[in-house]
Amino acid sequence: MTNNNxxxxxxxxxxxxxxxxxxxxxxxxxxxxxxxxTISRKRWQGLAELGLMAMLLPxxxxxxxxxxxxxxxxxxxxxxxxxxxxxxxxxxxxGSLLVGVARNAKAADLLEQxxxxxxxxxxxxxxxxxxxxxxxxxxxxxxxxxxxxxxxKVLVVPGSExxxxxxxxxxxxxTALVWVSVDAEGVRAENGRTADGGAxxxxxxxxxxxxxxxILSTDAADVLAQSLQVATIAASAELxxxxxxxxxxxxxxxxxRKQFNKTIGSFQSLQxxxxxxxxxxxxSAVAISRAxxxxxxxxxxxxxxxxxxxxxxxLSSAALIVTKEAIQMHGGIGYTDEHDxxxxxxxxxxxxxxxxxxxxxxxxxxxxxxxxxx
Amino acid sequence: xxxxxQNWNAMSDDAxxxxxxxFFATHxxxxxxxxxxxxxxxxxxxxxxxxxxxxxxxxxxxxxYGGMGLDPGxxxxxxxxxxxxxxxxxxxxxxxxxGPLLIQQGSPEQKKRYLPKILTGEEIWCQGYSEPNAGSDLxxxxxxxxxxxxxxxxxxxxxxxxxAQDGTHMFMLVRTNKEARKQxxxxxxxxxxxxxxxxxxxxxxxxGHEEFCEVFFDDVRVPKENIVGEIDKGWGVAKALLSFExxxxxxxxxxxxxxxxxxxxSVLTGRDRDPIFRDRFAALQMDVDDLNGLYRRFxxxxxxxxxxxxxxSILKIWGTETFSRIGDLIVEIAGGAxxxxxxxxxxxxxxxxxxxxxxxxxxxxxxxxxxxQRNIISGNVLNLxxx
Lengths: 374, 387
Ligand SMILES: Cc1cc2nc3c(=O)[nH]c(=O)nc-3n(C[C@H](O)[C@H](O)[C@H](O)COP(=O)(O)OP(=O)(O)OC[C@H]3O[C@@H](n4cnc5c(N)ncnc54)[C@H](O)[C@@H]3O)c2cc1C
What we know:
The structure holds two protein chains of two kinds.
Chain A: H1 2-28, H2 31-34, H3 41-49, H4 68-79, H5 87-100, H6 105-115, E1 121-124, E2 139-143, E3 146-156, E4 164-171, E5 174-181, E6 187-194, E7 199-210, E8 215-217, H7 221-256, E9 258-259, E10 262-263, H8 268-297, H9 301-330, H10 341-353, H11 358-369
Helix pairs in contact in A: 1-4, 4-7, 5-6, 5-7, 7-8, 7-9, 7-10, 8-9, 9-10, 9-11
Chain B: H1 13-27, H2 41-53, H3 72-84, H4 93-105, H5 108-120, E1 125-128, E2 144-148, E3 151-162, E4 169-175, E5 186-192, E6 198-204, E7 210-223, E8 227-228, H6 234-249, H7 253-269, H8 275-303, H9 313-334, E9 340-341, E10 343-346, E11 349-352, H10 355-363, H11 370-381
Parallel strand pairs in B: 1-4
Antiparallel strand pairs in B: 2-3, 3-7, 4-5, 5-8, 6-7, 10-11
The complex binds flavin-adenine dinucleotide.
């Protein structure tokens, strides 16, 4: 059956990618590389050379034309040793948006730079700290003199380290997508740090003049929604990597740390909790596989949204459970900034809240799948 | 000190509450209110002095030693008002631990030498029990003190000593007899941190603050009279302190102030009207209320002169785990702001969404981990057989 052959071929291809990514991760990634908050352009370039920026891009745009399911194992492998670079924000999310509007010349150009690892883009879509912010208040106003962007966007990763921003805006009731350079006149950044030390900013757009060429789309609502779903599954995949990384470190600690002349892993109370964490890990792994498969097979926007929420609800919750317990099982040393386990907690705090936390995705899941109350 | 001693315990609860509330409102520095993390001595010095000058620095100490001598009911009011006003902790190891211990077990000379300077804040104490390889299994500690004439010579390392960088003195456990059984060769020692041979290395915590230290001892000479109780009998001395500590660690204040923060954030996010949130808030409110009830039960026991039993461990478990659940819910209702380090700007005010969550992490570890507390309950209260 061709289907089986396709599947086998696909798995083989996924394996190739994962092997390459794992080798890269072993070479380039480490807690020490995670600690400085700044992004390494060299590693970003390295990720591009692996083809990671281009995975989701269609063949004709120089990409690999892969699907979300192919991305999952790669992101998992990168998340496990801790990845500082905002691959999901600046490549998966930004890339999906650009692919969605690629008929636009500027978008095609940006896409090319992105695939080459020469572009670090931020996506400025969110206006409140809540996932449900349907109504876009940022406006793109056009008249005889040109186009002007006004408004405010929060939680934009990677803040002022971005070369430029893909900004969603309300243009006469439709969702426009525009490209804005971070140092354009009228753009003001309030810089902050995410829990894991990464760059993030609130951007204020105060009558920013936009070239017609930089308006990538005036009807991007569906593309934006779908790109956010892809990114949500991708972030979940990175969280699965964090779970696996934190589990490895913690189980090692339980096997080696001694108190009362015994390794602490021999205490049954800790053994049972370790078993519970293992359950969380395995639930997470199946949740994300199912979400990716559902997403690829989905016929409707609702099905895609459901798949994304399924993944993020489980992974955000499980990763927090695992990393909090990891700290507890380490005792005092787990609360120092000097031990690596804390980095897993902080990265988890960041990724689990970004693009909607577990509760927000459960609420969305309920909305999408349950009958309206009578 | 010219402190006019009042009979606070004779006041009605309402009158006492009003007095305390007014005191905090009048004297406590506005910029130090609702501090999300532990404050350093340099920031709290002024407040320490104020409390000290008014004779309010040691609310639980007996009046004859310069404390307020509050009974447990009044003490709870004091703590509640302190929390309601958002008063931060001063470095209080001397007030909470060494003081009560010396009052109970110190020699007359030690009381005279140390207690007054704790009250004035001239001397600030830190605790040196834990070592890299002696945490939960504290009795396996190896820092040793060898008698040499009229001094002990101390060598070894302590770790996780809270705010030791600000301490002028440390109370510590040292091994004075390597032959005896684990618990039986340990002594309780008071050490001046300026003694030659002591090195303090502050360490950063997850939340980025230098909150605890490693302390190294290299041939540190400590006068023999600085031992509390008898030589080799320090484990018993420390154990008496342990029930104070468990009572203190089980105090509802952490959970109570966290609940107040949760309420604030629920208003900022509009979640206060949401039935799902209200259900969870109500559950936590009752968890805190019953924690309060438990706490009062144990403090009453202390007031009546009864010894605290091993069941006091339930306070620490319930208090810190309630605190932790509140921290989780704060992060949850913060939504996207839960990914931010430091305060986020909500319409209506700034709010640090992770500080409670971070503070909750060590609370289930320090003062005997919650696993150890559970072992105590199952073994010493429920008398379940060991494996
Ligand atoms: C913020 C903070 C401040 C502190 N301040 C001080 C201070 O001022 N002075 C001081 O002396 N110490 C201080 N401590 C140290 C604290 O008391 C120890 O961290 C604590 O006793 C645990 O020891 P440990 O860190 O070595 O962990 P370990 O004992 O190594 O424990 C690791 C894990 O194993 C578990 N475990 C161990 N034994 C058992 C068992 N028998 N059954 C089940 N589980 C078990 C523990 O619960 C924990 O989860 C502080 C700690 C923190 C986090």
